[in-house]
Amino acid sequence: MAITDWNSFVGQTDERMAALRKDAPDVAKAFGALAGAAIKPGALDSRTKELIALAIGITARCDGCLAYHARAAAKYGATREEVLEVIGVAIYMGGGPSMIYGAEALAAFDGLSQGD
Question: What residue stretches are annotated with the Carboxymuconolactone decarboxylase-like domain (predicted)?
Answer without folding.
Answer: 25-107
